[in-house]
Amino acid sequence: MKTRRNDPCFCGSGKKYKKCCMGRAEGNPLQDVKDEVHDLLEGRTFGSMEELQSLLDQHNQQKNSASVEEFHGLSPDQMHRFLHMPFESPELVTFPRILPTQPQSKAAFLLNMLVAEIGEEGIKLTAKGNLGQKFCQKASKAYFDFFPEPLMSRLSVHTETNFESLHTIRLTAQLAGLTRKYKGRLLLTKKCLKSFERGGVMELYPLLMQAYIQKFNWAYRDGYGEVYFIQQSFLFTLYLLHKYGKSWRPASFYSDNFLRAFPMLLREIEPKLYEPPEDTLRKVYFLRALQRFAGFFGLVDIEQVSEDPRNREYRVRATGLLDEVVEWNL
């Protein structure tokens, strides 16, 4: 039997069908907005268009400032600022210019090595503009001794692009204005030298992380499609980790809540014969937002909890560094 507009939704949310899955089922994402306006105006009369517009404005203001369950207490107005003005919303969140302690992470380790290697003289680059093989091999050995990865540590590093993490740091440091190329050499910029003199890596790190968020293309590090929204919504990911990350939780907890907050993102996932879009999106989210952003920058610890190579499962917990790089004012 067909579900009617005012029947309880079949998904079990407890909401009326018209206020839940009807718009999605009919392929019209604006359907619930139309129904909401219809319910608001039903039975009312207005003396002028100005009176009607005033009611609609008041309704929209109330709706946009009310917390949303799927946003875990954030209002639509707050989510808008999270997505479009994350670094210009001090009433919600601030990003300290200098960290109070030395950051401990994979990104910080490689940044330290790169800055030390460049030094005052700079280092010679290859014809393709990459770091030389000798330094890449030295950095690779030191990195995998400190952060063991059995499979990766056995691979031979011949070029910078063979060592993906170092390649990412080198590119991001340049995007952050910390390094520059000049006559076939890689040099530290005046900005980098002054910041390093004042606060060392504690001052360079926020610059590096902001460049990774705003300028580096996260899709460059994997073979999936663009799905830029995962990068754009980085602050919502950090908000979830701040809110729930004090204890270990399955990585699926965060990917499921991300999908629940932004279900329309599934339309950007290219369908595959062997995998539903939901599973693809969860994989991309874990890889980019949790592993190669929050994990790489030391904002979370990630542990593998299953041995099945076809269906690896992980758990995630926030580190103390998370609350040092982001200060919440909510």
TrEMBL record:
Give the source species. Desulfoprunum benzoelyticum
> Record's Pfam families?
SEC-C
State the InterPro entries in the record: SEC_C_motif (IPR004027)
The root-end lineage is:
Bacteria, Pseudomonadati, Thermodesulfobacteriota, Desulfobulbia, Desulfobulbales
Organism domain of life: Bacteria
Query: What is the name of the protein in this document?
Result: Zinc chelation protein SecC
